[in-house]
Design brief:
This protein is α/β, with parallel strands linked by helices and 291 residues long. It has eleven helices and 13 strands. The protein has two domains: 168 residues, Rossmann fold (3-Layer(aba) Sandwich); 111 residues, 3-Layer(aba) Sandwich (Calcium-transporting ATPase, cytoplasmic domain N), CATH 3.40.1110.10. The radius of gyration is 21 Å and the shape is elongated. Bound molecules: adenosine-5'-diphosphate and magnesium ion. Magnesium ion binds next to loops. It is found in: Cell membrane; Membrane.
């Protein structure tokens, strides 16, 4: 049974915009020693801005137009940025058979032409050669590649920003005795390394698929300090499975998908990672009172 004071803890958390879905999570939250984060939308804002468009065969407008049409069916933060660049939807485009390839991109037919939009990994798996991107090497920024009917068509460079409270979140978690912070991301190595360094996170792994994230969390669950817990924090886009696998799953409620909010045990309503620090403090106070 759950002590009554735990419900006071839930009330306290809700007043700072943290929704805790049950009294038993107070105990789990109080004992976190390993905190694992997703990157995009969790430690970064997930609000991408288009910085550059490059194509030898298409005009910028035409390339963005094709991309926006397939991205309108994706709920990935990258998709929101790319469909927003398309202003005039009053055209007679026929968009069919759009499907998302988790951790890679999205693909569909626009007026009968197959449009593939995604990262380098996705292009490789489709057997498409990236023929015109010298600046992709070592470049820090997200490069979204486009192919039409299996032929490389160009790329769009987009940039995200680190949430301003992310570095302080990591520092404060350390001060609270969280002994390991880890970032797991589907994004490229150079971006992951740059983000991890700027935020001050202990460990990171890049270019992961949703299943790889689950494997890392399972490994971390085995090596965590005895009697302590592991939390995963994500926006739920491609990480609902890992949210469920952690001792406690924390989701960003603003940018987060409905599936994530459903799968999570704790929801941060305004997407501020620093709220996790306050929630742990509330949980520990609640546990002390209950004893
Ligand atoms: P993260 O783990 O950082 O949240 P994801 O696993 O959600 O990243 O996505 C990994 C990568 O897959 C992205 O960095 C991007 O390159 C590519 N990707 C995923 N979804 C899309 C999409 N809808 N459009 C274009 N690229 C995408
Ligand atoms: Mg994500």
């Amino acid at each position: 049974s759950v002590p009554l004071t735990f419900f006071a803890g839930i009330g306290g958390a809700s007043r700072i915009g943290v929704l805790v879905k049950g009294g038993n999570y107070m105990d789990v939250l109080a004992k976190v020693s390993t905190m694992v984060f997703d990157k995009t939308g969790t430690l970064t804002r997930g609000l991408f801005v288009v910085e550059d468009v490059h194509s030898e065969k298409y005009s910028f407008g035409d390339l963005l137009h094709l991309v926006a049409h397939v991205e309108q069916y994706s709920n990935h933060p990258i998709a929101s940025a790319l469909r927003n660049v398309k202003r005039d939807w009053h055209d007679d485009c026929r968009v069919e058979n759009v499907h998302e390839i988790a951790g890679n991109g999205v693909e569909g037919y626009v007026n009968g032409r197959k449009v593939s939009v995604g990262n380098e990994k996705m292009m490789k798996s489709l057997g498409i050669t990236i023929s015109e991107c010298p600046r992709c090497r070592g470049f820090i920024g997200t490069v979204v590649h486009v192919a039409v009917d299996g032929v490389y068509a160009g790329h769009i460079v987009i940039a995200d920003q680190i949430k301003d409270d992310a570095p302080k979140t990591i520092r404060d978690l350390k001060a609270l005795g969280v002994d390991k912070t880890v970032m797991l991301t589907g994004d490229r190595e150079v971006i992951a390394a740059d983000t991890a360094r700027k935020i001050g996170i202990d460990e990171y792994h890049s270019e992961l698929l949703p299943a790889d994230k689950v494997r890392y969390v399972e490994e971390l669950l085995k090596t965590k300090t005895k009697g302590r817990t592991l939390a995963f924090v994500g926006d739920g886009i491609n990480d609902a499975p890992v949210l469920a696998r952690a001792d406690i799953g924390i989701a960003m409620g603003g940018v987060g998908s409905d599936a994530a909010i459903e799968a999570a045990d704790v929801v941060i309503m305004n997407d501020r990672p620093l709220k996790i620090v306050r929630a742990i403090k509330i949980a520990r106070r609640t546990i002390r009172i209950a004893r």
